[in-house]
């Protein structure tokens, strides 16, 4: 049984974090953030709003999206809310159409929605495997393709940032998500070349352990050791990730494409990473 813990920051705290960028950096730009009803997506959307952007946010659960939108509107920013699943290509096409109708443009897509469950790979069901691949590879792909088609057709530039994970040492217990995220990273590198002629940049941010409510999906036993997953021996915070997104999406990142920025306290180099708990074999 997973203990419920309070990870992450309140909306009020997110609104009051010190900004590391100029407050009009994204003035008049339209930013679409998937999975903005919680955790990283919410923090990213609020930060873009505080930097002058207009927001479109999507996810499956409308109540959580409306709560994020209410917070975003406190900054004075416009925010449209779109309840949908990224797993359905038709819903993604409809989403991108609606965002263009509502806002008249799109400048930045943050492909943040995602998630997985911890389980030894040998026990995955077909349905479980497909759920994770649909959520973390197919969904982000549908979003990228629809956004890029509109940018190509409108003749306007765009920037995509995909949130992935620290996959370079593999990650026991979440093999399905490692496969999906590796797919997104190499898809992004390929699209960075194919879509450069349209003025579309495609990059990724790979977060290490970040304190969000999404962490509640992991068993207590595993989560208790997550601060040992990197040489800094701690969790990162949501702003570590939202700052990387703003760097890549904004003018500072204008010559960067096909890149992965790893924001992980060194997790890619050192640390324990047993997402489903440490197997007996590795205890001695
Ligand atoms: C040092 C270690 C580092 C740790 C960090 C690793 C890096 C990543 C971190 C994070 O991503 S933080 C958290 C992000 N948020 C989440 O992960 C959200 C929670 N997860 C999910 O929502 C799901 O896992 C999902 C698959 C994305 C949910 O999809 P959906 O709602 O369609 O799934 P379900 O209908 O619930 O299930 C479908 C299918 O999947 C199998 N399954 C689901 N949960 C489990 C489980 N806990 N254990 C085993 N199998 C599971 C199962 O086959 C389900 O089918 P049914 O049995 O329900 O018919
Ligand atoms: N926190 C961390 O340490 C790390 C997180 N990540 C990744 O960062 C991203 C955000 O994670 P985090 O904020 O921590 O976790 P959360 O679980 O809080 O956020 C995931 C968000 O994605 C949305 N979502 C899930 N499935 C779908 C779907 N099919 N269609 C649309 N929206 C969907 C969820 O909303 P709803 O259920 O309402 O649809 C939710 O708001 C995820 O991709 C995660 O895997 C990667 C590495 C580390």
From TrEMBL:
The record's catalysed reaction(s) read:
(2E)-tetradecenoyl-CoA + NADPH + H(+) = tetradecanoyl-CoA + NADP(+); (2E)-decenoyl-CoA + NADPH + H(+) = decanoyl-CoA + NADP(+); (2E)-octenoyl-CoA + NADPH + H(+) = octanoyl-CoA + NADP(+); a (2E)-enoyl-CoA + NADPH + H(+) = a 2,3-saturated acyl-CoA + NADP(+)
Alphabetized UniProt keyword annotations: Fatty acid biosynthesis, Fatty acid metabolism, Lipid biosynthesis, Lipid metabolism, NADP, Oxidoreductase, Peroxisome, Phosphoprotein
Q: Does the keyword Zinc-finger apply?
A: no
Pathway assignment reads: Lipid metabolism
Subcellular compartments: Peroxisome
The UniProt entry, under SUPFAM superfamilies, shows: NAD(P)-binding Rossmann-fold domains
The record, for Pfam families, names: adh_short_C2
The record, for InterPro entries, names: NAD(P)-bd_dom_sf, Peroxisomal_t2-enoyl-CoA_red, SDR_fam
Q: Per the annotation, which location comes first and is thus the protein's main one?
A: other
- Supply the EC number(s): 1.3.1.38
Q: Could you tell me one molecular function GO term of this UniProt entry? A: trans-2-enoyl-CoA reductase (NADPH) activity
Q: Say what the protein does.
A: Participates in chain elongation of fatty acids. Catalyzes the reduction of trans-2-enoyl-CoAs of varying chain lengths from 6:1 to 16:1, having maximum activity with 10:1 CoA. Has no 2,4-dienoyl-CoA reductase activity.
Family of the protein in this entry: Belongs to the short-chain dehydrogenases/reductases (SDR) family.
Name recorded for this polypeptide: Peroxisomal trans-2-enoyl-CoA reductase
Q: Which organism is it from?
A: Vineibacter terrae
